[in-house]
Amino acid sequence: MINMEVCANSLTSALQAEKGGAIRVELCDNLLEGGTTPSYAQIKLAKEYLNIDVYPIIRPRGGDFLYSDLEFTLMREDILMCKKLGCDGVVIGILTTNGTIDMVRCSELIALARPMKVTFHRAFDMSADLCKALEDVISLGCDRILTSGGSASAFDGLQVIKQLVEQAGDRITIMAGAGVSKSNIAEIVNQTGIKEFHGSARKFFSSNMTFKNNNISMGGNTDEYSYSLTDSATVKNLIDLANSSGKILSLRN
Question: CA 77 to CA 157: how far, in whole Å?
């Protein structure tokens, strides 16, 4: 069975992920920045409403994965909050200035998180040496790594992900993510041997506002009157395609 984790940008998306058959949500805010820690209310209600695993991302800001002492303190407090709320796991990742895994700080966060599970996020893909980073993350005791194989998308990183799966063996789960879609999930599974994949499965919705001020932008969005949410039908379709992948040589043939 190939399982899907959904990167959920809200409680609404998380509920759609569960409806579509995902086994777990990585709960995030600010997906345009790669995901940051969601609010207390989002986490609390996700645990109350969902029957699948909830893993909030522990990331105080977008940008790089080199954090100040203050940001690290925030990460510690967010992990304690997640533990108090009964989360099933957390998603972390910290690097040093030279692109290696920050073993000291990551070790501290993991110890603080237990008995919750721990996923190492795509800070892994920003490391200087993926093979060494894999061994470091395994030694830390993480349960899985989310990776695109160091590329812009999991499809572009197919061969590296395959190598990571082979190197990892049964010591840690390698979960492919980034740019996973209905057009490539079967080939990603076929080529890499992954047992888990990660995606947002979002579609865009138009605002119901009748008055629109198109002269103002509140942020990086080009359209303030649309938003994206996970779509349960897309989640189900991706899972079905992933699990029928053994019958498909390649969607590109």
Answer: 34
Q: Two tokens at 141?
A: 């005791």
- Give the phi and the psi of residue 23 in degrees, each rounded to 5: -95, -10
Cβ atoms of 127 and 96 within 8 Å: the answer is no
Is position 156 within any domain? yes
Alpha-carbon span 235 to 19, nearest angstrom: 8
Cα of first residue to Cα of last residue in the chain, in angstroms, is 24
Q: Quick check: 120 and 93 in contact, CB under 8 A?
A: yes
Cα–Cα dist 163/251, whole Å:
22
pTM for the full predicted model: 0.93
Determine how many CB atoms are found less than 10 A away from the CB of residue 169.
9
101-154 pLDDT per residue, tens: 999 999 999 999 999 999 999 999 999 999 999 999 999 999 999 999 999 999
> Residues 125-139: pLDDT tens digits?
999 999 999 999 999
Total structural domains within the chain: 1
Q: Is position 195 within any domain? A: yes
Residues near 105 by Cβ (< 8 Å), separated by ≥ 6?
A: 67, 72, 94
- Quick one: pLDDT band at residue 207, thresholds 50, 70, 90? confident
- Domain-embedded: residue 212: no
Domain that holds residue 42: 3-207+221-247
| CATH number for 239 | 3.20.20.380
